[in-house]
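Re-run requested by the PI after the first attempt was lost when the workstation crashed. Everything re-entered from the original request form. Ligand of interest: magnesium ion.
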Amino acid sequence: MTNISEKLNEAFNNQIRKELESGYIYLGMAAWFEERSLDNLALWFNKQAQEEFSHAMKFKAHILERGGTVHYQALAEQKQDWNNIMEIVETTLEHEKYITDKIIELYDLAQELKEYSSYHLLQWFIEEQVEEEDNASTLIDKYKGYKNDFNFDHHVKRAE
Ligand code: MG
């Protein structure tokens, strides 16, 4: 039995694509760092990519719990040519702010449709985005503090 409206189901499928595309962006950034032997930064962005994958799976699980239909959409190719580290860390923060806006749009839609059962999931994502934006802005602050890329790389650690 379906317990989720078609409209919210579709919006969640769109969000799955956005989370996977976020992962795709971060994989490209990780490769950029790997090419330059900035291994801690590469690890940071690879872990971020994995986190995006888990975000997509959280939406998938919720859709299925509500008796909806999961549709994995085509992913768009993402930018992979970066000029410098600052461009990457600033893009990361901008991108997470964009994702926060998308999550808030979903929350608004769930309220409009009176989809009470999805509030908790979206609340979780709103809190998760606070962390995501904080991680990205911490990266910018740290980068500003180190003049040398390898020094910066040496000081980037990410909890499991
Ligand atoms: Mg995400």
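Saved to the shared folder this time. The chain has a mean pLDDT of 95.
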